[in-house]
Design a protein that fits this description.
Layout (H helix, E strand, L loop, with lengths): L2 E3 L4 E4 L4 E8 L6 E9 L11 E2 L11 E9 L2 E8 L10 E9 L7 E9 L10 E4 L9 E10 L2 E11 L3 H7 L121
Parallel strand pairs: 1-10
Antiparallel strand pairs: 2-12, 3-7, 3-9, 4-5, 4-8, 6-7, 8-11, 9-10, 11-12
Length: 295
């Protein structure tokens, strides 16, 4: 017998395990729909992130909850999760069946329905529960379609259809899970490269100080302008003597003057010679001995 549910209804669930199937009719522009399941403790939150089973984490570590591949049937596309209710430990108080849309809100998804099958039933048996999921506003991108919760020693199903406009991440966060929804930090604008700075130039190595054969430093050579030319064998050339100053020109011979011989020596002064009679008082100047009368 199949129970047809409406939002807010609940019904006992007599099954050791359930297969929850989301089914919708694809159209051009229809978002992709994914099914997921959360195992919640008495506080309404997951015990660890492993209690969230979906397309990126398709299997619970215990193996008691699984996500199955999508399929196409005559009435549309399906995405499925399975839970072994009878094998769950007492720490699991609720099992939530959720749906998320990728590419648009649920108002673009036609004929969305949740169907619960008894995993112990025949392969082609009718579902035990069907629920046509109608979002409240149409802007939702994540929905809690329904939940199975403990009631005494058994389980009951409640039809919900509660939605979230911010997607699967917001739904999961409500139950204590931090979900990486694939959004990355905005890219930073490229930084202008800093102007290249010239590397400091290493100082030139100091010229080696010349030393003698005994290791003593030799004096620095003088400026080349003051060093005389060196012979091939390395000894310094003697400094050239300063040129002698020009000599005075030879004396110019003067014409003989009165009282001097032609060769220029002064004559000794002799005694005055008495004038001869008949000389009319003319007296010769003093002469050299060779010219003295009577010599």
């Amino acid at each position: 017998m199949t129970h047809v549910m409406v939002k807010g209804m609940n019904v006992p669930l007599d099954a050791s395990g359930v297969r929850a199937v989301l089914r919708w009719r694809p159209r051009p522009g229809t978002p992709d729909v994914d099914a997921s399941v959360l195992l919640l403790g008495p506080d309404g939150r997951v015990r660890s992130d492993a209690d969230f089973v979906f397309y990126n984490e398709p299997r619970h570590p215990s193996g008691l909850a699984r996500h199955l591949p999508k399929k196409r049937d005559p009435e549309g596309l399906t995405d499925t999760v399975e839970v072994d209710l009878a094998a769950l430990d007492s720490g699991v108080d609720r099992v939530v069946f959720a749906a998320s849309s990728d590419g648009g809100p649920f108002r673009l998804v036609e004929d969305l329905a949740l169907l619960l099958y008894d995993t112990a039933g025949p392969q082609h048996a009718a579902p035990v529960i069907t629920f046509d999921v109608v979002p409240d506003t149409g802007h939702e991108t994540a929905l809690i379609c329904g939940e199975v919760y403990r009631k005494g020693s058994g389980w009951k199903f409640r039809a919900l259809g509660q939605g979230y406009a911010s997607g699967l991440a917001d739904l999961a966060n409500e139950f204590g899970i931090a979900v990486d929804d694939g959004e990355s930090e905005p890219a930073q604008p490229p930084q202008s490269p800093a102007p290249a700075t010239a590397a400091p130039t290493a100082p030139a190595p100091a010229a080696p100080v010349p030393t003698s054969a005994y290791g003593y430093p030799l004096p620095a050579p003088s400026s080349p302008a003051h060093v005389p030319a060196q012979p091939a064998y390395g000894y310094p050339q003697p400094v050239a003597a300063a040129p002698a100053p020009p000599t005075a020109p030879p004396p110019v011979l003067q014409q003989p003057q009165q009282g001097y011989p032609a060769y220029g020596y002064p004559q000794p002064v002799g005694a005055a010679t008495a004038p001869h009679n008949g000389d009319n008082g003319f007296t010769l100047p003093p002469q050299g001995p060779q010219f003295q009368p009577g010599r």
